[in-house]
């Protein structure tokens, strides 16, 4: 399968997003904001529809509209302090409303469905370059902002005391989330995108290690999830998004079971000693 | 040693704090007190209109004092603390603080997510980076000061209430604050650890002249350790000694 050009593109893109998604996801999960990923992946569908409607690059459309929605969530978070879940409903309604209206109008020149479920066949060279650039810039920004992002997630007030511009970094982070979603939507699709952001991190957290090790482990798990999903979907001729999500859940369950078994064995050993 | 006429320097606005520190360190002068916090006619309401949560608060705190801010729930203690930390802006009035960096120890229950995958060392190291400190050795020195150096690889979520509180104090101390603000330091902390923590705070205020301001519910700690009490009631506040508080306020309260 590796000699096909479209597969090579898909592998490069998958590799990039398997690094990028957990880098973003780890901060979202520890802040208990994983549902933002779900909301913004729906926003990306509106961006894709807008991009296709105006005959522009749909990934850029997804990035711009998702970044706008991410910034809007951040802005409204200061407004509806006690109802943050309500903000997600507002943004979700707006995004799905725009997407459904455009798709159902019949004015799109290409099929938006491939973005719903993800596709390997449609990853073009131009897509690959766009996704590569988005991913590299995002990963570099995360490396640069690693300590402030970690601390804002852990203890926002103590971060503010040090003079770090918390609100600015939160806005930058919403753009990073948008970027990772726009980069991933081609392969994994809108519907299961949030699982790519949250599940590898949820699996890595089971290891009960520090933040850096959790991040590295979630990248490794994400590479296993996405690559396995990609290869299985090729051989079984189904959309990669679906298989990636199934593999992610299976890996998570396996880790939970192994952890439980490991704990029981250790307990037994201690009792016998 | 020369005696300093303290009254000469009563007007703090004209004295530069760095200049003062220099003179103190040079040993030319004797011990001279610096006004660490000066609040003048502070009013605050979240809407900018009546009713005010803080009504015309004026307060002057010298360095090295250990102040406990007490009062009933909703009297404005936390609001006052958040104004001092710069999280809220006063509606009217002025505040000046003679400390470049304020050490802040939040209330443990406010933010502790016990499932957060972070080790003690990561908590210290990342904060060290945020404070832009150069000397990496200060991380272990701060942990040693509170006797927690052997816990550096432990997950924060696995620590007890007292151990977590000690780490948060060590974290705040890394930036060499002249002012340390604590929000209910004994919440969720067992009695033995409380003694250790308050002993440490008292030692810092006495020997290192770090000004301590603690929002408190723990009256036993207030009377045992603080040098002064700032009592807030219905947005009004007054500063008094622990003895004065017991004789005056509690006396009137009993009469009511």
Keywords:
heterodimer; A: 273 residues; mainly alpha; ABC transporter involved in vitamin B12 uptake, BtuC; 12 helices; globular; B: 256 residues; alpha/beta; Rossmann fold; six-stranded mixed sheet; 9 helices; disordered N terminus
Quick overview of this protein structure:
The complex is a heterodimer of chains A (273) and B (256). Chain A is an all-alpha fold.
Explain what you see:
The complex is a heterodimer of chains A (about 270) and B (about 260). In chain A, about 80% of the residues lie in helices and about 0% in strands. Chain A has helices at about 5-30, 35-55, 60-75, 85-105, 115, 125-145, 145-155, 155-160, 165-190, 195-205, 210-235, 240-270. The longest helix of chain A is centred in the C-terminal third of the chain and has 33 residues, at about 240-270. Chain B has one domain: P-loop containing nucleotide triphosphate hydrolases (Rossmann fold), CATH 3.40.50.300. In chain B, strands 5-6-7-3-8-9 form a 6-stranded mixed beta sheet, sandwiched between helices.
Our count of helices of chain B gives: 9
Main sheet overview of chain B:
6 strands, mixed
Label the CATH architecture of chain A. Answer: Orthogonal Bundle
- Overall helicity of chain B: 25-40%
The total strand number of chain A stands at 0
CATH class of chain B: Alpha Beta
Note the overall shape of chain B. globular
The CATH superfamily of chain A bears the name: ABC transporter involved in vitamin B12 uptake, BtuC
SSE topology string of chain B: HEEEHEEHHHHEHEHEEH
CATH superfamily of chain B: P-loop containing nucleotide triphosphate hydrolases
Beta strand % of chain A: under 5%
| Secondary-structure element pattern of chain A, one letter each | HHHHHHHHHHHH
Structural class from helices and strands of chain B? alpha/beta
The average pLDDT value of chain B, as a whole number, equals: 81
As a percent range, the share of helical residues of chain A equals: over 70%
Our count of domains of chain B comes out at 1
How many domain regions of chain A? 1
Proportion of strand residues of chain B: 15-25%
Largest interface: A-B, 26 and 30 residues
């Amino acid at each position: 399968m590796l000699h096909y050009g479209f597969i090579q593109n898909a592998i490069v893109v998958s590799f990039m997003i398997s690094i990028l998604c957990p880098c973003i996801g780890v901060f979202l999960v520890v802040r208990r904001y994983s549902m933002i990923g779900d909301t913004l992946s729906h926003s990306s569908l509106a961006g894709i529809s807008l991009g296709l409607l105006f005959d522009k690059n749909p990934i850029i459309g997804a990035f711009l509209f998702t970044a706008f929605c991410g910034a809007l969530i951040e802005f409204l978070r200061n407004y509806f302090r006690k109802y943050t879940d309500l903000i997600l409903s507002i943004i979700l309604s707006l995004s799905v409303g725009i997407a459904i209206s455009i798709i159902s109008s019949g004015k799109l020149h290409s099929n938006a469905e491939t973005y719903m479920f993800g596709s390997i066949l449609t990853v073009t060279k131009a897509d690959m370059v766009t996704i590569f650039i988005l991913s590299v810039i995002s990963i570099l920004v995360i490396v640069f902002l690693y300590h402030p992002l970690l601390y804002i997630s852990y203890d926002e007030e103590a971060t503010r005391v040090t003079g770090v511009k918390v609100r600015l970094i939160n806005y930058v982070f919403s753009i990073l989330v948008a970027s990772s979603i726009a980069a991933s939507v081609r392969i994994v699709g809108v519907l299961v995108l949030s699982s790519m952001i949250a599940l590898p991190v949820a699996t890595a957290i089971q290891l009960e290690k520090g933040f850096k090790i959790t991040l590295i482990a979630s990248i490794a798990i994400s590479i296993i999830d996405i690559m396995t999903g990609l290869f299985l979907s090729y051989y079984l001729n189904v959309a990669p998004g679906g298989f990636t999500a199934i593999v992610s859940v299976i890996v998570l369950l396996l880790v939970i079971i192994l952890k439980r078994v490991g704990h029981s064995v250790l307990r037994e050993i201690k009792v016998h000693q | 040693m020369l005696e300093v006429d303290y009254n000469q320097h009563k007007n703090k606005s004209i004295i530069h704090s760095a200049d003062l520190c220099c003179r103190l360190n040079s040993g030319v002068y004797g011990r001279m007190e610096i006004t660490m916090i000066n609040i003048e006619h502070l009013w605050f309401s979240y809407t900018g209109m009546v009713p005010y949560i803080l009504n015309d608060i004026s307060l002057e705190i010298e360095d090295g004092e250990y102040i406990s801010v007490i009062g009933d729930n909703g009297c404005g203690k936390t609001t006052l603390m958040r104004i001092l930390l710069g999280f809220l802006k006063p509606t009217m009035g002025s505040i000046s603080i003679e400390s470049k960096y304020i050490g802040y120890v939040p209330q443990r229950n406010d933010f502790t997510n016990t499932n957060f995958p972070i080790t003690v060392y990561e908590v210290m190291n990342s904060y060290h980076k945020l404070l832009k400190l150069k000397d990496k050795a200060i991380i272990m020195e701060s942990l040693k000061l509170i006797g927690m150096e052997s816990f550096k690889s432990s997950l924060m979520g696995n620590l007890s209430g007292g151990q977590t509180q000690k780490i948060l104090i060590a974290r705040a101390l890394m930036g060499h604050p002249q002012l340390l603000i604590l929000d209910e330091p004994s919440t969720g902390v067992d009695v033995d650890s409380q003694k250790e923590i308050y002993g440490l705070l008292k030692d810092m205020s006495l020997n290192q002249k770090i000004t301590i301001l603690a929002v408190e519910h723990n009256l036993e700690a207030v009377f045992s350790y603080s040098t002064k009490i700032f009592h807030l009631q219905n947005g009004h506040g007054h500063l008094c000694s622990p003895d004065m508080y017991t004789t005056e306020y509690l006396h009137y309260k009993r009469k009511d």
